[in-house]
Amino acid sequence: MTHPPATPLPRSTPPAGNHLRTALDLATAGVPVLPLRAGKLPFGNCPACRDNACGGRPNMKTAGACACPAPCHGWAAATTDAAVLVSRPWAAAWREARAVAYHPGGAGLTVVDLDSPEAAVWARESLPRTRIVPTTRGEHWIYRGAMQSANAVRRGVDIKSLMAYARWLGRGTGAMVELPDSVRALPVKHGPAPRHGRLVASVPVSDGGQCRHRTPAYLERGIAMAEGRITDARSAVHHTVYRVFLAVLSTHGRCGCLTETHVQRLFLAAQAKGESPRHCTAAWANARTALGV
Predict the structure, then answer these.
(1) Which residues are within 8 A (CB) of 225 and not within 5 positions of it... i.e. 6 or more apart?
(2) Helix, strand, coil proportions of the chain in percent (round to 5)?
């Protein structure tokens, strides 16, 4: 996947409360923006999305662009088009907005969201220093480069980049550096592990030989197809994730071939579609229960 080049952030920040002005300055700098309502939530202005009935998920049929006449789908509604930002459909949203959000991945950036003082201490001990923006409970560390977003990669640490939005809290301090491998590896090394004992039931292989699922090509093809089904889901994401987990376990769940890495890949694909780690864990546990594995 080709990611957009990193966009320099504005050199100054307009006075607090002037959200449209802030958004226009960011858009001029090439940073896709959208308004947030109370609770740091995106607006839902079209009938299909009002009161977040759509679940806040983007319209993937238009390659990430929101197809509604107003900002409805979180990160996918973010835009750098000033004409859209000041258009009539957006006017009510800006009048009611409590904050400005931006799509880091759309600007070629990655935000490591440190949601506690403890998480900030960990970052100072573990990650290369970069642009740092203070938040209410911690800090945003902003790197140059985009990657897949992931929640709860460690306690109090989220990654916001592609298919995610972050609040704009000012320019911050420090020189922005390139996205390091230590951050790219976080979803794999520290991603939310499913809360279960063994992944599969202890069932011996009937022919006494190696399970055919352990062959790299067969297993890899199955996991890749499962990831693709989740990624391609246009609606009913909760149901799709559960059905995919059920299909994977029905094929691979009794022979001992699944590993934590395989499960992690499925969880990360689901989280990229908006599922929380808790929902992933629950769906996996429910699928195991349904199949008795």
Answers:
(1) none
(2) 40, 15, 45
Gap between the Cα atoms of 146 and 170, Å rounded:
20
Which 3 state secondary structure label does DSSP give 98?
coil
C-alpha span between 187 and 272 (Å, rounded): 11
What are the distances in angstroms from CA 100 to CA 20, 170, 220?
8, 10, 41
8 A C-beta contact, residue 139 and residue 158: no
Q: How many Å separate Cα 274 from the centre of its chain?
A: 6
Tens-digit pLDDT profile for residues 232-255: 877 777 788 888 888 888 877 777
Letter string b/e over residues 154-187, b meaning 16 or more CB atoms within 10 A of that residue's CB: bebbbbbbbbbbbbbebebeeebbebeeebbebb
In this structure, how many other beta carbons lie within 10 angstroms of the beta carbon of residue 132?
19
For the record, the structure tokens of 18 come out as 């002037």
Short-list 133, 143, 120, CA closest to 167: 133
Q: What is the DSSP letter of 30?
A: T
| Alpha helices by DSSP H, 192-259 | 216-231, 237-252
Q: What is the pTM of this model?
A: 0.60
- What tens digit of pLDDT does each residue of 172-213 get? 999 999 999 999 988 864 444 444 333 332 232 333 444 555
